[in-house]
Amino acid sequence: MSPTVTFYKPYAIPATFFTLFTCYLLLAWGSGYYVLTLLWIKAASSAGMGAIFHFTRAEQLTFYQNLGFSAIRLYLFAAAFDFVIWLLFIIIAFQFL
Amino acid sequence: MTDVLEFDGIELSYGPNRVLFGTYMNCRVGEIVGVLGRNGSGKSSLFKVVFGSQSAQHRSIRLNGGPLPDDFIRQRLISYLPQGDLIPPHISVAKALALYRVDRAEVVHYFPEVAQQLTLKPHELSGGYRRIVELMMILKSPSKFCLLDEPFSGVMPVHVETIRTLLKVASADKGIILTDHLYRSVMSCAHRLYILANGTTYAVKDQSDLAFRGYLSSQHDS
After folding, report:
1. Does B133 touch chain A (CB under 8 A)?
2. Which segments in chain A show pLDDT lower than 70?
3. Which residue from B minimizes the CA distance to A1?
4. pTM score, two decimals?
């Protein structure tokens, strides 16, 4: 497993929770009209988790920095990976509308 | 050409408290440089600023006379053993060693007692063994320079001896800057010493300088 995936791992569960929550809202609302709202909910939750990490566990970044991964690179990877997973789940949820 | 890491002009303040303001230090590949200083003198902050994990009001870090490249992290020019834990709690020691490409057999060769503990999570190891594993990870990294913040912390004397040997072996192709309160161990393996006092670094010639800067009492025996 690569260092970037290892970095993301502790946040997989809360991130998945918010992803499933937005899927639930999409199905509950029964329309794709508010998909941008769902995207903002997901983006805000990801930013919140990132901020919590940055202000409480930033010292863990040293482990990854020693491996050649800067903090920005790790955060960007985590955000992009999280977004792709969210997009896949939302596309699947759209099939049930 | 031997690579040289230099830093000076580092200015760091916490509010009105000026922690660092007159530092100069250099380290060449092939040497071990020790940094001593009283608690709170800014040794750990200095290492963090150099590694980039802490911002400072001003800093000048040079590699071979030129500015340190912006992507020095990606290039793995400097590795850093922080004073606190290096391995995140969710990663097993074995996994951490694998990510850092450290051969478990080599760790066991130097520290046989650790063999049974390599599959544990870091918080399940004793502080001394955890320190040893983390130090091995840093010393075996491909970086040219290592910053070691208290590498002997919590390590029993017999292993301190082994660590000193490891540092000397690693310094053949690395520049190592270390700080620790086990000053005799630092002095015995360092080629040069600095003391950090009142926010400034001073070259140390002998133990009397340490007493003069208030690190040792003047009656301290050698």
Report:
1. no
2. 1
3. B99
4. 0.91
Q: How far is A78 from chain B (nearest CA, A)?
A: 16
Fill in the DSSP letter of residue B124.
G
Residue of A nearest to B86 (CA): A63
Q: Is B183 exposed, middle or buried (0-12, 13-18, 19+ CB in 10 A)?
A: buried
Contacts of B90 in chain A (CB under 8 A): 9-10
The Cα B121–Cα B117 span in angstroms is 9
pLDDT in tens, A44-68: 999 999 999 888 888 999 999 999 9
Q: What is the pLDDT of residues B135-163, one digit of tens each?
A: 999 999 999 999 999 999 999 999 999 99
Q: Looking at the predicted structure, is the pLDDT value of residue B62 above 80?
A: yes
Q: Which of A60, A66, A69 sits opposite B79 (nearest CB)?
A: A66
Q: Is B16 helix (H, G, I), strand (E, B) or coil?
A: coil
Is any Cβ of chain B less than 8 angstroms from the Cβ of A11? no
Which of A3, A62, A69 lies closest to B53 in CB terms?
A62
Best CATH choice for the domain B4-82+131-212 from the list 3.40.50.300, 3.30.565.10, 3.90.1150.10, 1.10.1840.10: 3.40.50.300
Task: Name residue, tokens 């002009």.
Answer: B9
What CA–CA distance (Å, rounded) separates B140 from B106? 10
Q: What is the pLDDT of residue B219?
A: 66
Q: Which run of H or of E encompasses A39?
A: helix A35-56
Would you kindly state where each structural domain of chain B is located, as residue ranges?
Answer: 4-82+131-212
User: Closest Cα of chain A to B3: distance in Å?
Assistant: 19
Shortest distance between the Cα of A18 and any Cα of chain B, in A, equals 21
